[in-house]
Amino acid sequence: MSEPRRDHCPWCGSNRLRTRLTGDGFALDECHDCAHVFQNPCRAPGTGDPYGHRRLVATARAMLPFPEPESWLDIGTGDAAFPAAAKEIFPYTSFDGVDPTARVERARAAGHVEEAYAGDLMNPHLMAHLRARYDVVSVLHHLPYTPNPREQLRAALTALRPGGHLLLELPDPQSPFAKLLGRWWHPRSRPRHLMPQDNIRTELDAGSCTIVTTAPARYCTAYRIIARKQPG
């Protein structure tokens, strides 16, 4: 199943699109104005790339230079493999999870998260419930598989307390591997959106967040951003 084809950019609204890549039953379009790349038409949401345990632990370790969080929300958590791995590094942190599927309920039953929220983070009732509750909010390879990544990012910032940290990992459409491998990049999954770092930076600035660190992730095929929400 595919959604209707878009005639405008889901990030900035521009109608200046060009086809960047076509493959077996899918196409990627790029916005001429903001360089956002997205699957057009978008397929039904998938589960994203599988993560190895060691990569998840390495991602959690990226938060070690910062104050130990009391509360942590993982968005797009699925079966909560990341919170389960992060507990090895932060055993005293309370982890909650949000996911559009019922898998997060099974994750709570398995003890991987304390609170499970099955649904869309942009639901006004859920956003109101989670507003400013968390010291850390992680969004790992979830935005590329959502219909509206910009709004999802804004919703993630809503759940963050002033002074808290946002942990993002996203596939990098400008990485050397993306340029080298072309259509064979990301052989296991097909992201619906590929967001340049400059777009993410601009959105975080608008959301009163200061980027603290940026680094390559996952063998340089992705990038990681840690940003701090400004107090007050």
UniProtKB/TrEMBL annotation:
Biological processes per GO annotation: methylation
Source superkingdom: Bacteria
Ranges in a coiled coil: none
GO MF: methyltransferase activity
Keywords: Methyltransferase, Transferase
Record Pfam families: Methyltransf_23
Listed InterPro entries: SAM-dependent_MTases_sf
Name of this chain's protein: Class I SAM-dependent methyltransferase
Annotated source species: Streptomyces cupreus
